[in-house]
Amino acid sequence: MHRLLIPLAVILLIGxxxxxxxxxxxxxxxxxxxxxxxxxxxxxxxxxxxxxxYCHSTARVSEFSVAPAVQKCVGxxxxxxxxxxxxxxxxxxxxxxxxxxxxxxWNRVYQLPDFVRFNHRPHIRAGVSCxxxxxxxxxxxxxxxxxxxxxxxxxxxxxxxxVSIDCVVCHH
Length: 172
Known about the structure:
Layout: H1 2-22, H2 41-47, H3 52-55, H4 58-61, H5 70-77, H6 88-95, H7 120-125, H8 131-134, H9 151-161, H10 167-170
């Protein structure tokens, strides 16, 4: 009887490790995210030096930093008379005076687990640059994750800055 328990325990342990290794973890960095529009952060944030918070202004005042509304794009591009090229499809509903019922459905590049509570606002108020977590976005045509945003990454930053590492700061 005892001879069967040890091999069975080893098999269960190996099986559990394989399941954990192969399981879906949606918060891991994904290099394969394709956006509905080929938007270049290198051109906008790098070459044209548009600050992150100009387009992602919700990060200052809310928990989330979301992709800007099409109106933000048209606000700049419409003023300079650009009506062709990559912006044509985005501007069409606005130039027809018939607003699109749906905004552009951008695909998430970063995803945190449900048990993590992250708020951009205090990080921005503390002067943490967007590049600290998102990498040199101003050099990317297509945004790809640079860092694996996991507990170790966050604890490292909190420790370096002397910020609380109490569990309830980030977990709920």
